[in-house]
Amino acid sequence: MADNKQQTRRSLSGLEVNPVYTPDDLASTDFARDLGHPGEYPFTRGPYPNMYLGRLWTRRQIAGFGTAQATNERYRFLLDHGQNGISTDFDHPTLTGYDSDHELAEGEVGRLGVAIDSVRDMDELFLNIPLDEVSVSLTINHPAIVLLGMFLSVSEKRGVDWNKLRGTVQNDSLKEFHGQKTFALGPVPSLKLTTDIVEFCTHHVPNWYTISISGYHIRESGSDAVQELAFTVAQGMAYVESALERGLPVDSFSPRLSFFFGCHNDVFEEVSKYRAARRMWARIMKDRYKASKPESMRLRFHTQTLGSTLMRQDPQNNIARGTLQALAAVLGGTQSLHVSGYDEAFDIPSEEAMRMSLATQLILSHESGVTNTVDPLAGSYFIESMTNNMEEAAWEYINKIEAMGSGRFPMKTGMLSAIDTGYIELEIARAAYEYQLRIESGAQVIVGLNQYQSESNQKLELFEFDPEEEEWQKGRLAETKSGRSATDVQSALASLKQAARDDKNLMPPVLEAVGALATEGEILDTMREVYGEHVDPGVF
């Protein structure tokens, strides 16, 4: 018995991993019910029949630092080196709805993302970028309605039909309260704004993904893979119910929901997580929400290799970590991919690190052989068993959250209750604590950190942030404010405030305010006057 215990291993999430798997482990699995063919319900094997045989995943390295001009230059570098989609990282003031001249923004302007204050900055950000040809991701949450408004305004100014725009705005407001923590408003008004975007784009920007439901930030906060899967799916269900409550037919908006997952080092667990996510979402949409279109049941997702796995010790080891994670994402059927730079444990990734990340994706695409067949791991006794176990464990969390809710839409109310009580945050904290204990005890080996340390001193050419860019951005903001019509701004903000008080969709008045050169901070301050300013209650 002692020997058997010693042989028992567990995944990073604590799921038991048997030494050997056989057909007996899949005795209860039905091919048609649980797997099917790629591109067919329940989409376990992928959302499309041909997957990478027909089209490779989008190479979408995130970029954002300093001014809009500096980030635009990085876009061009990435596009020249094999990128075919754009993803934008915003600085902390922009993420939380403050202008660059606000006292809370001091020292943070452009530091860890691009600073965007007005539609002028958005125009500069996408200078000479063909918006009707390149898909664009805007990684923004509570102020998403403002940044999307700026993007739509720029598109309209350039004569680009909104029907031709492709991309997504992250717009996952709920995860901010237990994930990234860059919130601007409370849970209820944030969910309302998220739904405003879903409703508006369903009618006016039909090819735009209205939410990128993010498990990535949950994982970066310390969750395990099961929690990432469970809480992400639960958030998605809450958004669906909020849109249904608004009166939108399920098949009108659900095809334009997307997901965003992280990828850790446990290759087979990560692959199983993605397969389980697709199957769970397909069944939820068909059985619970009565979706009838296959497009409504297909879970499509972007993957980013996890920054939390990157080590400052022996940083070139991070190239191997990024490669393994990228491989897991591809084997799991991702639709787009960002490979974190090997130097991101230090700062904004350098151009060399980003070039290496793109090369990693290109080598996987063209040299590894993993794109030669659809879903190459299908039928593995281990993978299919792990997929089943991931799904079962995730449902335990989802059912707990639903039990916290009530009424016609229990997942929506349950998620809000789980946020208010700190349930999700505490569960993530527990998992993070247990993982850290394993690292410190040596039970979880991290090469170069707690075992196999190297005495070599690797020299890196790190990204250098120019602090003068903050002052330049403040000057540009002052110029914008002095050159606009104060009357037009005040009128637009007054309309916005009234629409918020009347519980109307805020996208139209936001577009009016953006067009009048109102700043992001002014628009969010107007919303704060109506909805109040959220203060994290803390759960510890």
SSE topology sketch:
Elements: H1 2-7, E1 9-10, E2 16-17, H2 31-35, E3 58-59, E4 62-63, H3 68-80, E5 86-89, H4 92-96, H5 119-125, E6 136-139, H6 144-157, E7 167-169, H7 187-204, E8 208-209, E9 211-214, H8 216-220, H9 225-245, H10 250-253, E10 257-263, H11 267-288, H12 294-297, E11 301-305, H13 317-331, E12 336-338, H14 351-366, H15 381-403, H16 410-421, H17 423-441, H18 468-482, H19 486-501, H20 507-515, H21 520-531
Parallel strand pairs: 3-12, 4-5, 5-6, 6-7, 7-8, 9-10, 10-11, 11-12
Antiparallel strand pairs: 1-2
What does this structure look like?
With 540 residues, this protein is an alpha/beta fold. It has a single domain (7-441), classed as Alpha-Beta Barrel (TIM Barrel), CATH 3.20.20. It has 21 helices and twelve strands. The strands form three sheets. It has a five-stranded parallel sheet with strand order 3-12-11-10-9. The chain has a five-stranded parallel sheet with strand order 4-5-6-7-8, covered by helices on one side. It has a two-stranded antiparallel ribbon with strand order 1-2. Strand 11, helix 13 and strand 12 form a beta-alpha-beta unit. Helix 19 runs parallel beside helix 21. It is globular, with a radius of gyration of 23 Å. The two termini are 40 Å apart. Residues 1-5 have low confidence and may be disordered.
